[in-house]
């Protein structure tokens, strides 16, 4: 039985968000640079996949919610910063599926709440601030036991959503329609999307991840994810660490100008944390002849646009 775009299990009346029935939207980008280099660049608009679980968050959360239901748990708890896309998406999909949600927020809650946290609260998420010292130990048994003491039993989703269920979902991002692409690009945060792509890309493809975080630790983190989840990539892959613009959630005027121009010229909205940095890096690599002439490049738009409101509010910059 389908109701309000959600599917209900007739036996339990529990339901889950599903992939939309419409085919994914692909947007081809045009630029004199691409013509000069003989490249075809296409954006897979995962940001348009689902209104509440935008971009890669849909894939990360889908099987986690199903796992919570299978375990008989009616409450999910997760972690994130004050502008977290993951917190935002979790609050919406939990509410849509009749689950309670708890968001453990790094640092104090500043009132009035920013748009991200206000949305989450409006969806029924209980926001629980945690000081930064404890937050750094959030995965420790002691902290988790304290949280269980406060909130009772819950299904735990880690910060950013990356776990086995998330990677199971992100392996499904690439479909048969994408097999003719030579290169696949994605932003990297916690690494779950990148790991999933490495588990599904073909031997003829190269997956390029653009790290949003400063530092080379991302290489070991990806190696750990691949080992932990027993992923042996058939494809080649590359991690770019030169386009972080100062670190996570940081930016520079050159990035903002690039994003504004791309939105004006291609009607492609980006966020300054992930997708903006990826596209900036992609254009730079193209300029530097990273890609062979005739290559087809698939760019994954992983969402994150809800965070633009808070960014514009804080800095008075219109994206």
From TrEMBL:
EC number(s) stated in the UniProt entry for this protein: 3.5.99.7
Cofactor: pyridoxal 5'-phosphate
Keywords: Hydrolase, Pyridoxal phosphate
Modified residues (N6-(pyridoxal phosphate)lysine): 57
Active site residues of this protein: 84 (nucleophile)
Every Tryptophan synthase beta chain-like PALP domain range: 33-303
A molecular function (GO) term: 1-aminocyclopropane-1-carboxylate deaminase activity
InterPro entries assigned to the protein according to its UniProt record, in alphabetical order: ACCD_DCysDesulf, TrpB-like_PALP, TrpB-like_PALP_sf
Class of the enzyme per the UniProt entry, highest EC level: hydrolase
Family: Belongs to the ACC deaminase/D-cysteine desulfhydrase family.
The protein, known as: 1-aminocyclopropane-1-carboxylate deaminase
